[in-house]
């Protein structure tokens, strides 16, 4: 976060909560997302005592496709998201990769790890995915994950659940053609932010 300190120095009235979330908007747009609506108004606190408890993000695996899909809906519906918006947000997995030392999972979803596109959805539909058995020539001892025939790309059980659930798969097919991530991401970032005419929206100011 040190890289953002010069921005904070130039705009001392900007809260860290707004700064960090807006940097996420800039990063998503720079990677190729459509313009993301953004509203200021988050408040900083001295500690995490007023924050929601940990463990409220979706888990990668609940033991079966049905349980995993149910869990995903529980998490996203609690925040007011539809199945369509949930699948759209899951498409953010197209960026970056999993690291064994952090999550226990390994590998990227997309060969272009810094490019925001619809590859996650098209890969889910067009490639054959099988449980990972080996890693660097040794038996895989990590949690259940899936790999494509080359072993270069991976999918989490929660990713696979999107094509194993009939309703979610409809939106995977939709977003494989064109994914507009911006509205759902903007809605996610706006959760809990006061609505006030004095707090204006940014539309990709730095992209």
Compact summary:
With 207 residues, the chain is mainly α. The chain is 41% helix and 10% strand. It starts with a helix and ends with a strand.
Question: Number of DSSP strands?
Answer: 9
Number of helices: 9
How far apart are the first and last residues' alpha carbons, in Å?
A: 20 Å
Q: What is the chain-wise order of helices and strands?
A: HHEHHEHEHEEEEEHHHE
Instruction: Please tell me the overall pLDDT.
Output: 91
Task: Give the percentage of residues in beta strands.
Answer: 5-15%
**Main sheet strand line-up:** 4-7-8
Topology:
Elements lengths: L4 H6 L5 H16 L5 E3 L25 H14 L4 H8 L6 E2 L1 H4 L3 E2 L10 H8 L3 E2 L2 E2 L2 E2 L6 E2 L6 E2 L1 H8 L1 H12 L4 H9 L10 E3 L4
Antiparallel strand pairs: 1-9, 2-3, 4-7, 5-6, 7-8
Helix pairs in contact: 3-7, 4-8, 6-8, 7-8
Question: In words, what does this structure look like?
Answer:
The chain has 207 residues and is mainly α. The chain is 41% helix and 10% strand. The protein contains nine helices and nine strands. It has helices at 5-10, 16-31, 65-78, 83-90, 100-103, 119-126, 157-164, 166-177, 182-190, and strands spanning 37-39, 97-98, 107-108, 130-131, 134-135, 138-139, 146-147, 154-155, 201-203. The chain has a three-stranded antiparallel β-sheet. A hairpin with a 6-residue loop joins β7 (146-147) and β8 (154-155). α3 (65-78) crosses α7 (157-164), α4 (83-90) packs across α8 (166-177) and α6 crosses α8 (166-177). The longest helix has 16 residues, at 16-31. The chain is globular and about 50 Å long. The model is unreliable at 201-207 (pLDDT under 50).
